[in-house]
Amino acid sequence: TRRSSDLVLEMLDGGAWWHLKFIGTPYVNKPPFTPWLMAAVASLRGVLDEVSIRLPGAIAALAGALAAGAAALVLAPRDRKVAALAAGLAFLCSVQILLKARIGETDVTVTALCGMALALWLYGRARQHFGPALWLGIAVLLACAAMTKGPIPVMFSALPMIVIPLLERKPRDAFAAFVVIVLAHLPMLAWAWSNRPDAGAAHWVSEMRLGGEVGGDNRLTRLLHLSDLPFAVLYQLPFLPAAIALVFARPDLPRERRWVVDALLLAAVPMGVLTTVLPIGRTRYSMPATWPLA
What distance, in Å, lies between the first and last C-alpha atoms of the chain? Predict the structure, then answer.
């Protein structure tokens, strides 16, 4: 929390809202959305303390749980209240959320934002109607997610938004989702462009999880490493067996219901695996998979 408090202090006292600073030096490791939230809480409370640093993550966890419950309430064919309660509790009680929700990390915030964006998309799919307001809500949530931790977490929710319509031979819907996702990244790209003097190409390669750590050995001795994948799987227990059971039950579902399982799988599995087996992958990078799993 010391790094977060210093970033927020530089915002409140030094005006470093767009060009972040840590101990007086430029900080370009992450976009500024999470420190913005912390600064907002500190301003409302009139003091910068641990509560101001930790509260946004806790609120994000609750928002993610409510979004998971709301999505289950819309999607479940029966016992909807039970499904909503189970989804919300599964999100809140997941190991990764329990470990990170109270320490002021960006992972919980971006997980909740991506989950809420996916919830809106699932709602539109279930109602078979996407109005401008719904697309705007999705764009705003994804923009906040990108401004929290860059484009990688956004891909968890973006994949089903694009792939499911393509599988259903609805290219117009896929194109609409693609446009919204691209537009959602414009604020993050503007931030990265304005901070480019303080970060070279090697830094952005590292932050995109495409290479080794900056200043370290950037030679990739192995394309894949599996050390974090088992932990990522372990952290999804005890709810993972229920998700696997739903996959096996998919063939027995009515055809019009199978897209739900497909969408949640696309949101959880590809990026959940990829972010743990990249050369500098970490278990916590797979946290956005927690929401579709719930």
Answer: 28
Cβ-based neighbours of 28, under 8 Å, separated by 6 or more: 20, 195, 198, 199, 203
pLDDT at residue 132 is higher than 90: yes
C-alpha dihedral, 7 to 8 to 14 to 15, nearest 10°: 110
Overall average pLDDT of the 231-258 stretch: 83
**Where does the pLDDT of residue 206 fall: very low under 50, low under 70, confident under 90, or very high at 90 and above?**
low
Q: Where are the beta strands (DSSP E) in the chain?
A: 21-22, 25-26
CB neighbours (10 Å) of residue 123? Answer: 20
219, HSE (Cβ side, Cα atoms, 13 Å): 1
Residue 242 has phi, psi (to 5 degrees) of -65, -40
Task: State the number of CA atoms in the 13 A half-sphere of 273 facing the CB.
Answer: 5
Q: For Cα atoms 284, 62, 261, give the angle at the middle one, nearest 5 degrees.
A: 65
What is the structure's pLDDT at 211?
A: 52
Chain centre distance of CA 8: 22
Contact between 142 and 157 under an 8 Å Cβ cutoff? The reply is yes
pLDDT higher than 80, residue 281? no
Is 0.90 surpassed by the pTM of this model?
no
DSSP run (H or E) holding 8:
helix 2-14
Q: Determine contact, residues 44/75, Cβ cutoff 8 Å.
A: no
